[in-house]
Design brief:
single chain; mainly alpha
Amino acid sequence: MLTTSDLKAIKKVVREEIEAEAGNIKDSFSHEVRTANIHLRNAIHKQGDRIKNVEVRLSSIGEEVKGSRKDIRKLQKDISVAIDVFNVEDTRLARRVRKIEQHLALPNEN
């Protein structure tokens, strides 16, 4: 049978082993946490760079859209003027055809 001093000696040895293993685990875990932290910082930095690139591209696209809007407004004005001119010309031509038809006594097609 084991004596009290034997049990104390076993307890001391077990405690020392547990403390040594706990220290190793703590050191290993601490290293893992530091490594993961470095990887996360790098990933965050890369994402920040990507976001900046997207912002730059969006800014240039916004400028292009503004330019396109100006071009579209100009085209709309040009088309409106062209339509007005064609309407005036069409009206004049219709009046002229009506007068010619009346002068030649042709049947009216309206």
